[in-house]
Amino acid sequence: MSQATISIRVDQTLKKDFDSLCEAFGLSTTSAFNIFMKAVVREKKIPFEIRADNSNVTRQKAFSAFEAMRQSLASSGVPQMSLEEINAEIKAARDERR
Asked: How far apart are CA 11 and CA 5, in angstroms?
């Protein structure tokens, strides 16, 4: 089987830490990447979960919910409120609960 070379750039500290960990496993860095690549090809997926930062996901969901409320309000015929009016409504509701 012919060989190919892959060149990647990584943070120097990350490389040093990864090399040390591979050595502790009894592997070379090249062997570790070959194992990773074979697992990706075999499984047809990344062999670990990759996900967004929760705060970004929460922010996106909140914005989507806000947009849905705005669209619902626009179609209902209820006039829009200013920020000051919204804050006054919130304050009144909080005062009522006390």
From this structure: 19
